[in-house]
Amino acid sequence: MNQQKTRTIYGRRQSRPLKDNQKNLFETLFKAIEIDPLNLPEFPNEVIFEIGFGGGENIAHQAQKYPNALCIGCEPFVNGIASLLQTIEEQKIQNIRIFADDANILLKALPAHVITKGFILFPDPWPKKRHHKRRVVCLENLLQLHKKMARNAELVIATDHPTYLEWIVDITAQATFKNHFQAINTLECPRPSEDDIPVTRYEKKALENRPGAFLIFKAI
Ligand SMILES: C[S@@+](CC[C@H](N)C(=O)[O-])C[C@H]1O[C@@H](n2cnc3c(N)ncnc32)[C@H](O)[C@@H]1O
User: Fold this and answer.
1) Under the phi-then-psi rule, with left for phi > 0, alpha for psi from -120 to 50, and beta for the rest, what region is 6?
2) Marked catalytic residue, from 36, 101, 102, 124
3) Could you tell me the fold of the domain covering 45-219?
4) 10-residue block means of pLDDT along the chain (220 residues)?
5) Among this protein's residues, is 160 annotated catalytic?
6) Best residue among 6, 10, 51 to mutate for probing ligand 1, ranked by most atoms within 8 Å of CB
7) CB of 106 closer than 6 angstroms to any ligand 1 atom
8) Cβ(67)–Cβ(44) under 8 Å?
9) What is the C-alpha separation between 189 and 32, in angstroms, rounded?
10) CA 78 to ligand 1 centroid distance, Å
11) What does the domain layout of the chain look like in residue ranges?
12) Residue 144 buriedness (CB in 10 A; 0-12 / 13-18 / 19+)
């Protein structure tokens, strides 16, 4: 596959240089658990899929909470992947696979209806109007995700950013979206428990200023 033609990643790929132990983890653990869209594994009954896992706090938590699930995390940011690799090694987590690129590339390759839970937590807000088209949450991406979600599978979308929240509310109010998803957790609902969704690095940063909204939808 020519990934250059299909990928749409706008954020940075790396910040600090990797330390030697992190480089070693990329050479060993990452190679063992990287997921290849052209050579997909067997999918168990439970598949948890996260778009933009950042430092991996949520996907690591889900993997430990649901040891029988296959947890697939997508994240192109190298330092975030390095953090998750360290957690996987330290906690001896066995059920995580990583895709280090645009989640849409992997989504397109997945068979239909395999995902039983999806997460998009604190996606980059791209606040400038001319950058709104970069937002990961858009109707096209959500419909693509829906094709790969099992019936009744839940999708959690969280943001602390007021204009991104308005954007998400507008999209999820559209008839096309409502033909595919039903809202379970609306703006009025409290944050899910930390046992269900841990506080991620971005939520922690955001909490210093404003609480996040957690919207939850069910695929129909
Ligand atoms: C603001 S961070 C939030 C990270 C994490 N979810 C958290 O709550 O701490 C958004 C992340 O999404 C990742 N991202 C952006 N576009 C993506 C895409 N198309 N596929 C997968 N990840 C993406 C970015 O690299 C970034 O790390």
Assistant:
1) alpha
2) 124
3) Rossmann fold (3.40.50)
4) 52 81 95 97 97 98 98 96 98 98 96 98 93 94 97 97 95 98 92 97 85 94
5) no
6) 51
7) no
8) no
9) 40
10) 11
11) 45-219
12) middle
Sheet holding 96-99, edge to edge: 96-99, 70-74, 47-51, 115-121, 149-159, 213-219, 181-185
Question: Nearest residue CA, atom 14 of ligand 1?
Answer: 52
Separation of alpha carbons 175 and 192, rounded Å: 26
As a whole number of angstroms, the distance between CA 148 and CA 114 comes to 6
Q: Decide: pTM greater than 0.85.
A: yes
Does the CB atom of residue 102 touch ligand 1 within 6 A?
yes
Contact 164 CB / ligand 1 (< 6 Å): no
Distance 99 CA to ligand 1 centre (A): 12
Cβ proximity of 182 and 220 under 8 Å = yes
Does the C-beta of 121 come closer than 6 Å to ligand 1?
yes
> How would you class 85 by CB atoms within 10 Å of its CB: exposed for 0-12, middle for 13-18, buried for 19 or more?
buried
